[in-house]
Write a structure and sequence with these properties.
Layout (H helix, E strand, L loop, with lengths): L2 E3 L7 E3 L1 E5 L6 H12 L2 E3 L9 H6 L1 H26 L6 E3 L6 H8 L2 H14 L8 E6 L2 H11 L9 H16 L6 E5 L9 H13 L4 E4 L9
Parallel strand pairs: 3-5, 3-6, 4-5, 6-7, 7-8
Antiparallel strand pairs: 1-2
Helix pairs in contact: 3-4, 3-5, 6-7
Length: 227
């Protein structure tokens, strides 16, 4: 596990390569941005707004699932390859996606023949990816995901249905239940706000700095709650 020592006055360690993951609306991008600022690190973000098929996919899953998924696969693989070449000497890196999670959406949305084609492309595109020092998986109930999606008001997300989020949430849970690719921190993000509450964020940050290899669970109390 590659780690970086914190600056003087900071306790614990900083992962060299940190990934934040979770289903739509759980807050992974906002947390990744805040962690990047806290660590003074390079940041790699998904760019779903660049996918020309995404809005049409939410309106008609059957007709636009394959081009939507292939666009994301090519985009994410290119981002990771460019990042790997550019940031060999960056002491700390934070990303808001795992390339491996692309298969969650593919298996959820594609027909059998489309999935076979996708898997062939995926195998051809696979690059020698760096292994994260820690993956943070944020979890929340579907009601929370829906509320957060509606609150942020992104145009292409207006057509997301509750049933789709339920299936996606279950797929994420299944994927990370079996995930062994890197040390994993499962975080209950249902009642906390890591972006707006410094108390919540500092609590998570301390846990990250104390985490070692293996699987961990973090179930924080919301700010102001008593044990």
């Amino acid at each position: 596990m590659s780690i970086q020592q914190d600056k003087p006055g900071q306790a614990g360690i900083t992962p060299g390569y940190l990934v934040v993951e979770g289903p739509i609306g759980v807050g992974k991008t906002s947390l990744a941005q805040k962690l990047s600022l806290a660590f003074g690190s390079d940041l790699l973000l998904e760019r779903p707004e660049e996918n020309p098929f995404l809005e049409r996919f939410y309106q008609s899953h059957k007709h636009f699932a394959l081009p939507t998924q292939l666009f994301f696969l090519f985009q994410r693989a290119r981002q990771m390859q460019e990042w790997k070449q550019r940031d060999l000497f960056s002491p700390t890196r934070v990303a808001d996606f795992l390339l491996e999670k692309d298969r969650i959406f593919a298996r959820l949305n594609l027909e059998d023949d489309e999935l076979r084609l996708y898997e062939q492309v995926y195998e051809q595109l696979k690059i020698d990816l760096p292994v994260p020092d820690l993956v943070i998986c944020l979890q929340a109930p579907v009601e929370v995901l829906l509320e957060r999606v509606h609150r942020r008001g992104i145009a292409f997300e207006r057509s997301i249905e509750r049933n789709y989020l339920e299936r996606l949430n279950e797929a994420y849970t299944h994927f990370f239940y079996h995930y062994t690719g890197a040390p994993l921190l499962m975080v209950n993000a249902a009642e906390v706000n890591f972006v707006e509450s410094d108390t919540d964020f500092q609590s998570l940050l301390a846990f990250i700095r104390s985490a070692r290899g293996g699987r961990h669970f973090f179930n924080p109390l919301p700010a102001g709650a008593s044990a």
